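Lab notes, practical 5.
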Amino acid sequence: LWIMALACALAIGSKYVLRVRHNGRLRHFMNPSNFAIAVILLTYQWTGMLPWMYTTDLHGAWDWVVPAVIVMLGVRLNIMFTGRIPTILSWLSSFFIFAAARSWIFGYPYAGQLVVLTGIPMVLFTLYMITDPQTSPSSRRSQICFGAGIALAYSVLLALHVQYTMFYSVTAICTIRGLWLFALDLRERSAKRSGDLAAMAVG
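Output from the prediction step:
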């Protein structure tokens, strides 16, 4: 149980440690649960993830009903509350494009590159993980870049044969976004200080 406690501590702690000033207030930029999972998987490589373990005994129509319910609830959640549909569409469309590129470069069957999208883990990842409203951008343009960036990182890591690619890709893109927001905040504060000094000189 200690590994679970450590993961919870990492997730909660990241919300208070990994923060950057954005729109005048400090906000955490790293997806908490994804960050904790990525750190645990990287640090303790005897651990693993089985997010599909509860669906292994489903057969027949239930193989379609359960994923359909999860998809419908996830789409409803993102349409009505998070507003992250552009992120989802960007991620999926970019995934298809990069899958075609991998298929062409490495000679892999294209269908084999897409079959991962049919699994419960990827459905949860697409509709619930990358759309976290606190750690993903809200403007449409930024959402498109965010979703495409995750797909690109996923594709690169997959080509390098990195396991648990989905978690590391989100961690990488959230890190890049956090650094970008930090740089913007430094620029804004520098401009404000310059403006204050100019006003004092004039006064």
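Observations recorded by the TA: The chain has a mean pLDDT of 91. Residues 136 and 169 are 14 Å apart (CA to CA).
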